[in-house]
Specification:
The structure is a homodimer of 411-residue chains. Helix content of chain A is 40%, strand content 25%. With 411 residues, chain A is of the alpha/beta class.
């Protein structure tokens, strides 16, 4: 069974927004053996949505519409789908009650237009949305399955997993798609490709894609087979060779982020970490604490933008800054050692650099970053020159800092 | 003249890739007064592309296809467009010569299939690609304009600007599109809509869209007119009413983020800020320092995950934590006042809370966050209960902290 995804919303036709729900949906549909053949994006226009939906009905057995289920006047998906399918909308008492209860719990008056979300096309089933007032809707119509989902990802994603996935599992053809993702740090894309192209080239199935993102190269394998174990076996056959070729540059094989992997190592080795950052402005602490449970190993951070704070809170000697400048190897070292000493952490990390776009000089250009790592074995300091925007420099700096921590505790 | 963008490529139908060329194209087309009404994404399949292209011909005067112009067998756009339009492909001698020259310069033998890129549908014009071997193609066909562009952004973007934009300028109706974005904090989406629906409902032009994202509601107005000043006048007529209705909940009218607006206020008032954060783990410092030039007003931050750091670095009295717990009003207050005193900042912000998903209790559930703001007028403390995931709680907490700073310095 092939699928088409229709994303509804005028904001998705502006230069600022793109449809990201379809990435989540594609992943989930693929896992069920369903291939996405078309994606369409259309604005909040009755006529345009009707045109697009009619075309989808003619070519796609499964149609998933996202967005346009909100309470406002420009939320039209429910109405247009009902009209094109020739089904009347009727109010579901239970939905009305749920919406009223929700507002009562929040202690707020319910605007009348919220009740539009209690309406479902005749013959359609509503799907419980635990994170919002717009339910999903499931309609089987003359050989098509039509699914309506709310636009916000935090509503759509759990709703899909809880209600749509099991329903689709029952009707899907049975072919299974499985993927494996190797995340690599410290090698450029072309080198990754050179290493593994001779390995993946003989295989059509799994299909291999190499994807470069900020500070990480991802190698995606995607296998199709009649059963899950068969798809997994195909993945393993090629994947194990690729993993061997990439060696310890692979930091994750299950989709984990670098900060997640570092966290797991820290827990395993019963180590703690503290950070003192300048140009990354808290991003390293923020990445480390994205992980639930990070309070076990993350003791704290100091964001010392001003020299005063470097001196007072991270214990950097003032004459060191005078002698070498705030962006220098000795200051990076002092930050790492200072924050380690003050927090009694196993590992201290210090970052100082120039994120740009301003503040660079001939000697110390934008993109220059020093990262230091201090532990009981001593202090390691690395100098980096990152290209690109402020965002990119900051992200790369934290990526390499995390990679230094990963390698240190893994050894 | 309305447009449709068709992105061709099977990789765009995987969970890993989304079409980003259309964002660039939409921006450029809007500047020419051309509205994008549909975006379609289709794989490297002759049949599927033909289906999609036929539908586009029927509904869209301008069709821009991207991708599928490469030299390999699965690059089908040229062939399918020629076939659907009933035009034969013919080889252009100049293009053949260019491709051969290019390979000669690189000192590589030219694979025969590269010559497919020298083919152009009869009656079509080719558009020079200075950064690759695939030329663009421009075809005027029975009232439709069809443009084929190469997929790689570094080829597509300069090619579009150099060759398509001037051609489109000549044929475009002359209408201009201008947008205005109001960003609102502190009001739920339905309340925003209730406040402004009576204002925008009478207007077809500008068109109004309401968009809820994490901690911000955006109201987008989009006006079309024959001239830019006329479009701006239309925006102003409705926009000013909307701005008045939403009052000081509007924090930005030019697309700025909340941290950008706060930064501008701080510079204007010559104030400085320092933060001591617990559950947000550095996110508040990170958001403040995203802004280039933030070192003028951001003095630093302390990420005090452990109680020791709250005591040692932010000066929170130990008995306060014992008496009230780390997540409490008095500790939030002590964090804000402590970090302000230690850094001599005009404003100190303290955040403590439970981001979850674990660590909650009956008295202090996940999502409970205290935010304190200390300045020379005293300390304000607010208690929040944020729903949702760890990510959301952390984002919301920093959003409300920034909003408290904005209101304090604006007054």
């Amino acid at each position: 069974m092939d699928a088409e995804i229709i994303a509804v919303g005028s904001e998705l036709l502006t230069p600022q927004h793109s449809d990201t729900n379809s990435l989540f949906l594609t992943e989930r549909l693929n896992n069920l053996g369903i291939l996405v053949r078309f994606k369409t994006i259309v604005g909040d226009s009755k006529e345009d949505l009707a045109t697009v939906f009619r075309a989808a009905l003619a070519r796609s057995p499964l149609i998933v519409l996202t967005g346009g289920l909100g309470p406002t006047e420009d939320d039209l998906t429910r109405d247009v789908v009902a009209e094109v399918l020739g089904r009347r909308l009727h109010e579901v008492a239970e939905l009305r009650q749920r919406i009223q209860d929700r507002f009562a719990r929040l202690g707020r008056p319910m605007p009348e237009n919220n009740l539009r979300q209690a309406q479902v096309p005749e013959g359609g089933e509503w799907l419980e949305n635990r994170n919002g007032t717009a339910p999903g809707i499931w309609i089987e119509h003359k050989g098509n399955i039509v699914v309506l989902l709310p636009g916000p990802p935090r509503e759509l994603e759990p709703l899909f997993d809880a209600t749509c996935a099991p329903r689709l599992e029952r009707v899907a053809s049975g072919a299974r798609i499985r993927t494996r993702i190797y995340k690599v740090v410290g090698l450029p894309e072309s080198e990754v490709d050179q290493l593994i192209a001779p390995l993946y080239r003989p295989y059509q199935n799994p299909a291999t894609t190499i994807l470069a993102s900020l500070g990480t190269i991802e190698v995606h394998l995607r296998a199709r087979a009649a059963t899950e174990p068969e798809a997994e076996a195909r993945l393993a056959e090629l994947g194990d060779k690729i993993e061997l070729a990439l060696g310890d540059h692979v930091y994750s094989t299950k989709g984990e982020s670098l900060e997640e992997v570092v966290g797991m190592y820290l827990v395993m080795r019963q180590k703690t970490v503290a950070v003192a950052e300048s140009c990354t402005g808290g991003l390293l602490a923020e990445r480390l604490t994205r992980i639930s449970g990070s309070s076990i190993y993350f003791l704290g951070g100091i964001v010392c933008y001003s020299n005063e704070l470097k001196i007072r809170c991270a214990g950097v000697p003032a004459d060191l800054i005078d002698a070498h400048g705030a962006v220098s190897k000795p200051v990076a070292q002092a930050l790492a050692e200072g924050v380690r000493a003050r927090t009694a952490a196993s590992i201290g990390v210090g970052i100082t650099g120039i994120a740009g776009p301003t503040g660079g000089s001939k000697d110390k250009p934008v993109g220059l970053v020093f990262v230091a790592l201090a532990d009981e074995r001593g202090t390691q300091i690395r100098e980096f020159h990152f290209p690109g925007s402020r965002d990119r420099v900051r992200h790369w700096a934290t990526q390499m800092a995390l990679e230094m921590v990963r390698r240190r505790i893994r050894d």
